Amino acid sequence: MPPIDLPPAVGPFTRVVLPKRFCNLDRLLFALSARGLDGIVATLPYNVFYLTGFNGVAHKADEPRPYAVILSRHLPEQTVLIVADYYLATFLQQPTWVEDIRPFRAVMMPLDLAPSHSDIDRFIPRGGAQAPWIERARRHYAFDMAAAMRAALKELRLDRGRVAWDDLGVGHRLGVEGMQLFDGYDALMFARAVKTQAELLLLERSTRLNEMAIRRTMVAWQKGATWRDLNKAYAAAVTDLGGFVRDPAAMVWGHPRGSDPALTLATGLEDDAVEVGTHVMFDCHGTIDLYCWDGGKTWVVDGAPEGGASLFAKATAQVCEALLDAMRPGARISELQARARQVYRGAGVPDPASAVIFFHGLGLSHMDIEQTLADGRPNGDWVLEENMVVPVHLLYPGGEHERMWLEEVVHVTRDGGRPLFSWGFDPLTGSDQRPRDQPAR
Length: 441
Fold this sequence. Notes:
Radius of gyration: 24 Å
Structural class: alpha+beta
CATH superfamily of the largest domain: Creatinase/methionine aminopeptidase superfamily
Strand content: 15-25%
Strand order of the largest sheet: 4-3-2-1-5-6
Shape: globular
Number of strands: 14
CATH class of the largest domain: Alpha Beta
Oligomer: single chain
Order of helices and strands: HEHEEHEHHEHEHHHEEEEHHEEEE
Number of helices: 11
Distance between the termini: 35 Å
CATH topology of the largest domain: Creatine Amidinohydrolase
Helix content: 25-40%
């Protein structure tokens, strides 16, 4: 197969400095209060980023985490951010609302030399040395992370309090006598579920990038191209536009051949040809500035829906329109699913019960929904709130020339769901396979 050519990059996807604070802090404080918690300690990368804007380079998920945010519900403006010394200068580029940043002597410093308080100076650029927060950071320089955390917990009067941890193991290993430890997952997810205006803009941007990358992938297809080629074309388009994807593949659905209607996920090992007329289900994942994109819809390769597929496409579009109207604060997921199936039934599809209809939150993860409510009840059939971002997943199963997929990313408003994709609810067809980029909205 000839090498894939991608159209030149067009689009406002350059990484920029983020606002000092974009988290829903008031909602987090409410969650802590509702659970009778005095504070929270976050050490997981996404939560640290959410609370402070800090996105550390060169750190992997299973390595000891060289950062922590310690927040007291009673003194939220005195929140402490603890970081490895080599990360201190990051905040000269990406400022944070947290004014108390405390570095500690980390892995780059030699074990064969005695620790010195002047070690921190190695990591402070001359141009930022006089910043007031840098001077405070110098005064708080600690020789190990545990000491820095214990000091901050004591100063915030959390050492004897009821404290949530997004990783309970970190709290247990720290071993602060007198502190009561609680799981902080749901308190943080409660906060993350409802997006601030800054987060909505970040999610709009990520969705726009995904839409443009999908269109480029369609343009790149040629006869003889395989699923692996398609995955590579999508990943190349994303990277060229400024986004990121992860192993094993950014395209999530598997695509059984022939008449097999099974629901499978991609493994990254698929390498058979993508034939003319195939219904490709674009469900693409990736990030820019750590905020996720999701979704896509059906692309009929070099063709259009035929036979029963035309009915399935029309019905799926009608379902999505009805759901957007129903996606208002107070709606329950089970009610939305029932409404969707009712529309499928009214549209005359042969088997409405076979349709797959599901929802989840979207933000820094593909969940962003608390699993357990403050009163201890499970949150399986959750309720929409204003300014949630919720992808709608609609799949009417069938063979490779019948299946119909649509995933719209929806901003929940009082007036109904606002779609973040710009391309409507009809499937993509051969007429869409032309060299163009989706213009910025």
